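Re-run with default settings, no changes from the original entry. Doing this only to confirm the output is reproducible before filing.
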Amino acid sequence: MLPLDTALNDLLNQLSSTLPDAPGLRVFESSFALNDSFDALTWLSSQSAYPQFYWQQRSGSEEAAVLGKAVAFTSLEDAQKFIRQYPDEDLRVWGLNEFDPSRSSLILPRLEWRRNGEDAALRLTLFSENSLRSDREFAKAYIAALKCAKPLPPLQSKMIREEHRPDKEEWCRLIKLATDTISNGKLNKTVLARATDLHFEKPINPASMLNESRKQNLHCYHFYMAFDPDSAFLGSSPERLWRRVGKSLQTEALAGTAANHNDDQEALRLGRWLMSDDKNQRENMLVVKDICQRLEAECEKLEVLPEHILRLRKVQHLRRQIQTSLHKADDTICLYQLQPTAAVAGLPRNAAREFIAEYEPFTREWYAGSAGYLSLKQSEFCVSLRSAKISGNVVRLYAGAGIVPGSDPEAEWIEINNKAAGLKTLLQPEHK
């Protein structure tokens, strides 16, 4: 018998226990034997239930596939309030926060597969405001409707056209407007982004796209949320927003970009240039200082580690990691103090957000928000960069660039092309 079947049968046996005809929450868990035949993303995308959420930590040590919802939340604050009512259940809430952190799509899943290192488990959650006994019957039907995993379809669809918002001419105009605004003292930095709509002959399978990204975009968080059969948001992000274990907090400043190269020596040369380039160093330090200022009232002494190069498939980044201890374990504080960071919005934060809202020719929605989970014990969210929104046969790719004094429109256009290439080349095999 396959490990999944074994775990599901165990959960069904546990459901035979006596449950009250009253409101409540109950969690059932079964250990899951890991083997090479089970791929969580493939299994998840084979199901007909929604929402679906997949997440893999950038080290690869943690992974989750969650299906359906026991409870849904439209803000992280509401999710945190809920799980605090059940401190003994080790509840995890998974999903996305928008660029505007007040809006979220978060779920306490009906079914949750969770792996930490070599240990994995399958969890089933019952929740009802009326009757746990009745919800048990829904849960049994839910398990009965699960489907066997089917191989992911290949990414084979011809691209019909490509549309940039803004196009290059408008982009150059926006960069000039941004640098003028900075020169006038109204901003220190802003981050402008581009949305690229790729139109294909046939619908693109989101899980297939993320699966290819998992193989090629290493050292990244991988996330996928399918809202229904026709719409999903996914990405492979290099940037941690925060990781909290108890009161211990880790975050980082990932800002400053250079191209990568297949030749290690050339990549090293580009990385050395990035480490010594004044514009990129200033951009990174602006982010560091902003993070420290936002957190200083909420934590003990902040420690900023030395900068280093993070080398990815298409680009390299300057990264400085930051760690501290919070006065209290509160993920709402982490979200609102850290998102959006200066690396995805600018400085001062409010002025930069107003500039973006007025001049960017699209709405960011989930782009440059965050993806991950929260629980009472710990939480971790990545910044939802290198991301795509899939609507049927249209794939929208996002990429942004930090604009500071001295930013050159042509160089910034090349930078966002390099960033978008991390996902775009998955859809154009001839360019891999």
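The chain has two domains: 3-70+109-144, 160-431. The two ends are 39 Å apart (CA to CA).
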